[in-house]
């Protein structure tokens, strides 16, 4: 059964842990380099995620036995390493993009490892496999590459926040589709990203000059973990749960809508207005998708949950002295 109090504790633990760690690593330094801020952000996200999973009692098998285990133990740590290398000044940009592309190509196959989609030829034909994996590669590349490009062109806290909104929508959708553990695992990712992003944004306030002229150093690790985490949760929810392909794609590409705010009439507005427009654009498809998921949940799963709760209460009453 869902436990909102436990979820709130997990979110709070991940949020506080990530914020405290990145603040301790970055705040004392008067002039932190982008590489150091990115490294500190990666450390904070990792510790925040561990804290959230532990407080939320999300069991992860070692060695990984399920797709969710592989996402948490293999894929997300790989993203942290790749994005840590991305910010190092001596690492060539081409090599970094080669690592990112390699990760994009590996993620779907790693998540499907050991499943009927791989081991049972009758479940998937060669063409179905090629088309499905190809679409996943394309969507993941567009989202990751597009947000990284925008972060260099027009950085702002609205970019990681848009990923957090999408991840939270993915968590709710996956849970309403019947896969509780997938949604529970997504919540600490959201909180760790948000806590880290808030502190990084606050660091800008320590720089001299007008607020609008202080550059926001947006660590690439925020985007990498956000995009891969979002893709992984939706991928697992679709192939191992009951999330429809349309809803998975809608939530997965929603963060890319922040690019609409780059149109000339919108881009010329003040930064906080541009940020608000970005978040509004991302929120619209997410709210529609959540409403549809809630409708299906109330129709298909809610009656089963109520019946299960009644049975448990009845058994408890009959078994009491």
Automatic annotation (TrEMBL):
Q: Does the keyword Transferase apply?
A: no
> For this UniProt entry, which segments traverse the membrane?
6-28, 35-55, 67-88, 95-118, 130-150, 157-179, 185-204, 216-240, 275-293
Q: Does the keyword Ligase apply?
A: no
What name does this protein carry? Uncharacterized protein
The UniProt keywords, alphabetically, are: Membrane, Transmembrane, Transmembrane helix
């Amino acid at each position: 059964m869902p436990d909102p109090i436990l979820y709130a504790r997990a979110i709070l633990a991940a949020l506080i842990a990530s914020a405290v760690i990145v603040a301790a690593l970055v705040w004392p330094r008067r002039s932190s380099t982008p590489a150091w801020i990115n490294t500190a952000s990666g450390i904070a996200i990792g510790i925040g995620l561990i804290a959230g999973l532990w407080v939320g009692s999300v069991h992860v098998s070692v060695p990984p036995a399920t797709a969710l285990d592989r996402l948490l133990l293999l894929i997300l740590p790989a993203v942290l390493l790749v994005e840590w290398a991305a910010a190092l000044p001596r690492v060539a940009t081409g090599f970094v993009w080669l690592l990112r592309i390699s990760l994009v190509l590996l993620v779907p196959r790693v998540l499907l490892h050991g499943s009927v989609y791989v081991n049972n030829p009758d479940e998937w034909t060669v063409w179905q496999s090629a088309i499905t994996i190809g679409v996943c590669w394309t969507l993941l590349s567009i989202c990751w590459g597009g947000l990284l490009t925008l972060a260099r062109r027009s950085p702002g806290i609205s970019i990681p926040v848009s990923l957090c909104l999408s991840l939270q929508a993915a968590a709710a959708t996956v849970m309403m589709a019947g896969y509780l553990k997938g949604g529970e695992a997504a919540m600490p990712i959201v909180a760790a990203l948000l806590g880290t992003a808030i502190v990084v944004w606050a660091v800008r306030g320590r720089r001299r000059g007008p607020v609008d002229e202080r550059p926001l150093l947006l660590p690439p690790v925020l985007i990498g973990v956000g995009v891969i985490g979002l893709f992984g949760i939706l991928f697992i929810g679709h192939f191992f749960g009951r999330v429809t392909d349309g809803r998975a794609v809608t939530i997965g590409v929603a963060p890319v809508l922040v690019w609409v705010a780059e149109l000339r009439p919108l881009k010329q507005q003040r930064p906080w207005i541009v940020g608000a427009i970005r978040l509004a654009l991302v929120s619209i498809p997410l709210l529609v998708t959540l409403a549809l998921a809630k409708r299906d949940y109330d129709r298909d799963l809610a009656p089963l949950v109520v019946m299960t709760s009644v049975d448990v209460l009845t058994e408890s009453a009959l078994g009491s002295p």
